[in-house]
Amino acid sequence: MGQPSVLDNPKYSYLVNVQPLFFRFWKKLFDIYCRFVFLWYAPLKIIGRENLPDNSYIFSCNHNSHMDVAILSVASGKGFNNFGMLAAKDYWFDSWIKRFVVNIVMNLIPIDRKVDGVRAFPIEDTLALCRSFMDQGKKNLIMFPEGTRGEPGVILPFRKGVANFAIHLGVPIVPAFIVGSDKAWPKGKIFIRPKFIYAHILEPLYPKDFIDDSLNESMSDEELDNSIEHMTLELEKRIREKGKELYG
Predict the structure, then answer these.
(1) How far apart are CA 143 and CA 65, in angstroms?
(2) pTM exceeds 0.85, yes or no
């Protein structure tokens, strides 16, 4: 008998099935709160919303503040429940209390950290959960290619995870650049400050422009790695160029 599918695990049912009304209510409430903040307290100006695809995508931008996730959600024009984020399985999913509390406002998708080059929770399971989540009404992912918060105007080297997921899931990456979130909610500060914020949404990158469709399943690991590398470099180039344009 084969291993049970991760999609049948009740622990992740909120990513596979329609969420209970309780969680949808709190996410909607949080979404209303964020929209109020970005309308009246820390005004958010959105540039380039017309670049957003009609189907599922991965939102990817520079990362300077904890509020960047909420900024991208509001900038999309969709509700907060329409976005999922990858989170370390060994921390966020080690107890039902954490899962319950976080699921009130966020859709976390488990990913395991590598130990000696191996993940205890297979990356294929993470991809399966992402795919199932995104198939529910064209939902989307948010991923930060730098992997951590950086300093404003300084772009850290990009990791390959965003392009890797985009190619395996067959969805575009939508690059964006956020200005001002670091001033509105700086590192180490508890309260949000009344500052202007700008979200610049750039043209999407499509996997088909970086892979040879004629190869189908015959693509070698080396060819796949080259495609991921190429897409990562293009994503980094576009975000760096926008940052240089805005910061000088």
Answers:
(1) 14
(2) yes
